[in-house]
Structure formats: C-alpha cells, structure tokens
## 1
Amino acid sequence: MKKSPLAPRNPLVAAALLRKAGAHQKTGKALRRAERIALLANLNAARRNNGDDGSFSGQAHAARVCFAGTN
C-alpha cells in the first residue's frame, strides 16, 4: 500500500517553533502596571515613614513624594 502525501506545512510556523520565537520585552500594559505598582509602593512607604495621615498638605506633602525612576 502506497503512502498518501502529507499536507503542505506552513514554513513560517515551523521556523518559529524551532527558534522558540516570542516577545523580547514586556508589553506596554505590563510596563504601565509595573510603574503604577512602584509609584503606589513609594507613596505608601512615604506615608509610613513620615506619619502622613493621607491628607494633602501642599508643599510639605509634595516634598516627601518620590516618583518611580527619580532620586
């Protein structure tokens, strides 16, 4: 009995599977979420360290806030 020919394969899929292709960096959504988490962590740490009750008090409050990525 003769074998039937195999169905044609997509060469791009085979190459991607062999290379284990994938994303090389985090998505924009993941980066935004990480920035937000870092900002909230910094704000919470500032509140804990300064005894802040969470109310806005103008310049004194702004001086204590440290945004992610700044010194």
## 2
Amino acid sequence: MGLVFPSIAMASLFLHVQKNNIV
C-alpha cells in the first residue's frame, strides 16, 4: 500500500508536466 500513493503522485506530476510542456 505504501507503494501505491507514490506511484499515483508520480503519475499525476508527470501528467501535469506533460500538459504544461504541450501547451
């Protein structure tokens, strides 16, 4: 369970950066 939160947080951050880079 301790590995699930970091994975989601990392994915969210990655998507946020990708969105900023695309726009």
## 3
Amino acid sequence: MGRVRWLLAACPCIMTKIAAPNTAALGERQAMPSKETNELLTRVEGDAPMGRMLRQHHWVPAVRAAKLVADGAPAHVRLFGRDYVAFRATDGRVGLLDEACPHRRASLLLARNEDCALTCIFHGWKIGVDGTLLDTPTQFHRKEAFAASVKVRRYPVREAGGLVWVWLGDDGEAPPFPEFEFTQLPPENIVVASAQIDCNWIQGLEAALDPVHVGILHSSFIGSGRGYLGLTSAATPYFQVLPKDFGLQVAALRPLGDGTTYVRVTSYVMPYYGFTPPNDPKLADRTVLIAVPVDDTHTRQFFVRYNLFGSPIDNHFAETVEASDPDNYTPFPGGKDAVWGQDREAMKNGHFTGFPRNIFSEDMVVQVSMGPITDRSEEHLSESDIGIVHGRRLLIEAACAFQEGKHPVGAPEGIDYRSVRAPTGLIKGGTDWQAELSTLEDAPTPEPSLAGEPG
C-alpha cells in the first residue's frame, strides 16, 4: 500500500490539515488546539461539558473488583472531582454511594461494612447496598417516614473484566454497557493493575494514540525482541488512521526491506480506552489501557492484560503486579525535584530512560512531566501525531454535540464492542493489510454469559 496524504475534515476547534507522511517538516500545519479548546478538551469537573458528556453517556471503570472484599474496608473512589465510596456487601453485591453520610456528612470510608450495609460510625445511620436508608438512630419519632424522606444516591454498578464500573449520569436510564471481549472472561484470564497519576486524563489517554513512542521510550523493554514488538524500531513507519464507529484505529506500517511490512494497529475506543497489539498474535495476550478522569489534574489509569484461552502467557506483567501494590502500580519516589526517581546509574548501564521498574512507568513519568494540564497551544505536532489529532477531534466533537443537545459521537448505542481488537503482524508487500491481519485474528469470541449483570 503506497504512502498517502490525509486531509482532515475541518473542525473549528482543532485543525484542518496535516502534511504528507514523507514531508520532512510540518511548518505549515495548524494542528494545535487553542487555549480555549484545550480547556474544553481537558476539564471534567462540575458543569464542564466534557465531564457532563462522559458521565451521562458512558460507563466509567471505578475500581479493581478484587480490591472490594465482602464485609471488608470500603474503598475511596474519586471521579470527575467528586468523592464516592465503594464496598462489597456480605452477599457479594457491590454498592457505590456518595462518600459523605447524608446525616452530618462524615466520611463513609470510616463506616462499618456488615449486614449488607454501611453503618456510619458517627451516629449509626445505616445504608443498604441498594441505597436504602435502613436505620436512623438519631430520629426518635416517625422513623420510617423520616428515613424515606432522606435522599441517598446509589449509583448503578456492574462488575466485569476485573473491574467495577459505574454510571454517574443525572438523567434517564444508563447507556448500554461496553461488552468488550475481556469483560466476558473469567477472572483467571485477566490481570488488572491501576495507578493514580498527577496529570489530566487526556495526557494519559494520548499514549494510546501515539504509535511511534513505543520504539523510543520503551526501547529498553522491547529490545529483547520478544514477538514482533522489537520491530517497532526496525524501520521508519508511515501511518493510516481508520475511522470506526467506536472511535478510530491508528496503523503504523514499517517496510522491512525484505518484501514484508510490519503492521501495528492501536484501537482507540471512545472515550477512555486504548487497545494495544499483542507481542505475538498467536499468543493472544492483549492489553487495554484505560485513562479515567479523577479530577481536572489527576487520572486513574487501569492496565488490563487478558488472554482469551487461559491465564496470560507473558508473566512479566503479572509478576510485577504481584510484587507491588496493584492499586499503586507505578509509584514515583519524589516529584520533579527528585526527577521522579529516575535512575541515572541504570542509564549509564544501558537502560534508555532510567525507569526500569516496568514499561508503564515510562509512559506515566513523561505524562506527569508535562504538568497538571499541558498547554497544547504550545505544541509542535509532527507526522506521527496524526492519531492524536484525530482523537482530540472526536472528543471535542462529542462534547460540542452534547452541549447542543445532540447525540454525541462515540456514544455506546449500536457499537459492537466485542469485535474490538488491536491487530498486528507481518504482511507481504502490496497486500491488503486489513484483510491479511484479519486472518490472524481468529481467536473465538467469548459468550456474554460470563459477564456480570448490572447492579
């Protein structure tokens, strides 16, 4: 497939043009969003249009399912600048409530978790997993009527794919749940870790839209040549962006000089998800990166490694998760003054970045280094950033449509999430890479009966 020129459709918020892939410099491009557009893209708290759109039209991964133990400690969940408490009841059901007790607003993180309810330690108010106010010891007359008059917000939850998901919308019914194939799998087929990082969610998300950084930033991890991943630095790539109903795919194509081309495709699923290709499609270990807004300046990133046939074959990720806190997977000792714990001695000994702990720490440290909310109006985007430009445009279009009372692009209605994968492989020159790679994606699709039901 020859190299092509892409002309992006005009978007008043972002950009109109990107140069041909073989252009040495992009001096004429107008790719950077304005400061105002950057605000629309990144802000999620309160009445910010992006946050309201995400809460209303999408389920949100909230917490690792394994973190919640029946009658165990409640877990703090912060999303879109608001605080919640999640807990697993005596019978295994999961509840998610506002963190503040409705009586005097003491934190329900302190509550007793027993008898399928949280009991506030301040005055004994007891709230069931379904949000029912079961007891108000401070009310002595007409207790039932009083309890019925107190509004307790209980949010719809669903447990699937090693995660607890929540819908935080204000109006109507919850949207369709994103039935990704990993949400259909049993727990033994999935490894999940997460980490909170000190930057805006878009900085975390855009790693999934940037195929070139893999062969540079992660060169010390991929240099062993496991599977195809070592080829990411083997040749100069050119790119294609494929619009999809779920978002888009970014294909990096690298001619290897022997008549074959290495193709690596990343699938961006609106609004939070980046599916990255397996090292080897025959092993079928797959990875999903999920960037969830905690607030305007913090992100909770979930890392999901799954295998359709059994336990993940690549044990490195599972072993590093087991050896660390799976909810603080990549802690950085110190901040900028300590250069986030960068190991210069490791760099002298050959490690490219000085962050040898795991591959995800390299992503997160550069994201944090950009600042809480990076000023995209000061960027100088280059050829490989075409996926980032497209992804930003999709999100801006969705937020603008929501503001206008229209159905936003990327909303889950009618999307076949179970078909989403990120293919990779070697193809012969001149062949249709989409058709060629589809023959490698022959793993069976799991049935939805294994998925959790809404709660």
